[in-house]
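Exercise: predict the fold of this chain.
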Amino acid sequence: MARALVLLAKGFEEIEAVTVVDVLRRAGVEVQVVSIAEKEVCGSHNVTVVADGTFQEAKMEDLDLVFLPGGMEGMERLAADPRVGDLLGTHLQRGGKVAAICAATCVFRAHDLIPSSTRITSHPGVAEDLKEYSYVEDRVVMDGNIITSRGPGTAMDLALTLAEELAGAETRAELEAAMLTGGG
């Protein structure tokens, strides 16, 4: 069974986080929702989510994916936390997949994790901050083990892409049909 870690920080974008967690769990992926601070995390629209645990409690071995939801305040907290940079760097060195959506793509830049030739996308509001990369405006962009997406409206596209990466195309098709996404 594939394993994913979702990192939350105060001010995260709720639609992006919950959509990815929900779809990955439907796909049979073991998803661990981890807060970099308190277990209860308030999102950018005042929705509080209870994480499975805190960063100190997380099981970070044998991960297939680390996912970062957006939200400007949440992104800034993830970008400022050296533990996040260490986790992502180690995970990438091991060949693991990392995904970010919306403003969270900036976390890769803040921790100097990906080469400038990497194809990425983000929310248009932070595109200027990412101009050193090969920036595109597709809904979901995959470049090797780096997967990025644009914002709340593309969260389902990203979630289904991640489900396919971790559980296969057949699982994605089954999810699309069951959830009436129009893709299957």
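Check your answer against the key: Residues 14-26 form the longest helix (13 residues).
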